[in-house]
Structure formats: C-alpha cells, structure tokens
Automatic annotation (TrEMBL):
The lineage of its organism: Bacteria, Bacillati, Actinomycetota, Actinomycetes, Pseudonocardiales. InterPro entries: Homeodomain-like_sf, HTH-type_TetR-like_transc_reg, HTH_TetR, TetR_C_34. It comes from Kibdelosporangium banguiense. Keywords: DNA-binding. Residues 16-76 form the HTH tetR-type domain. Signal peptide: none annotated. Residues 39-58 bind DNA. It comes from the Bacteria. This is AcrR family transcriptional regulator.
Amino acid sequence: MSQGAFRRARRPEQKQERREAILAAARDLAMRSGVRAVSLGDIAAAVSLAKSNVVRYFGTREEIYLELTAQCWREWEEVVLDRLADAGGPGDVIDVLVETIEERPLFCDLMTECTTTLEHNVSLASARAFKLDAIRVAANVGAAVARVFPGLSESEGVELVGAAGVLAGTIYPMANPPSVLVELYEQEPDVAAFRLPFGPTMKRMLSAIAAGLPTLR
C-alpha cells in the first residue's frame, strides 16, 4: 500500500480500512519479533506510512497494541464460549480456559505487556474502550464458566477468568524465556528444573483458585 493512496482516503470506511491495516501489520510484527521489540517506526514502515500519519489513526504505539489486545480478548471469547458448550465439568472447564489461551502466544505476550507498558501511554478514550471491552468479555465467559462448573457462582466464574488472564501474563514470559536464559538453562540443569511449563502450571494454579473461591464467601 503506497503512502499516497493512504493519504487520499477520506470516507469513514476507508479510515477504518487504514486502522485495520495498521493493526494487521502490528499483529504480524509482534508475532515474529514479540510485542516489546516492535516500534512505532516498524509499524509505519510495514504499512508504507510516516509515523506522523500512523498517529492520525492511533495516538501512540501503545494504543495500537491495546486495541490489538482487545481484539485478542474478543477472539478468545468466541472460541472459549464455543468449547465450553461441550464441557462436562470442572476439569473440562480448566482445560478449555488454559488450552485456548496456550494456543494464542500473541494473546499471552500482549497480556504480559498490558499492565506494565501498554496502559501507560494511551488516551483516556482508548483506556476506557479497552477496559469496558475486557470487562464485557470476562462477564460473558465467567457466566458460561459458572453454568458448567458446579459450585461456582457467576461472580466467581468471572474471578476465575480474570485469574486466567493475570496468570497467563505472568507465566508466559517465564515459560518462554529470552535467549540468555535459554543458554543458562542448557548449561545449568538444576536451574532449568525451576522453569515453569505454561500449560501444566496454569491448570494447577487455576484449579487451586477454583477450589478456593467458594470457601471465601
């Protein structure tokens, strides 16, 4: 897409197409390099725009990735609701929550960066839209969890979904360490033994949280 073609668009649908192109480029770059490594300049170059033109659609790099995080929440919601329809009990629920997250490394990476970076350089409108979207997703998925998880209330289902997001953002970088730690683990098996595997750790911790929530009423 040329810079000239991008500048000529004026209609709302054309502007939306531009936003979607920027988000698609940001997604692709993050999947290849990791969210933290991608700059606003990288995204601008990928869509053949100057940075000053990109910020007409998203005020900052962080706003781009916060919107992408919201997209990932919505994509995850659709898949997890579909799979929960076939869940037969607590074990199935935990499996669905964890496995649908584990299948989405970009989602995990975004959750890792969200509260520490992405929410720190955005407009009030962007922050509001993101939070309202995340709350809506958690409410919908939490209600579905409660319907198939005996003993959990709807509010506890929402808490379990929130815990899944928080744990994913914490455990993912530990399970997928940078190259220097990979090298260390190869040299020091005793240290490597403490590297947390993502799926099993998530399932164990979420199962413990689910078991404990009713006792705190």
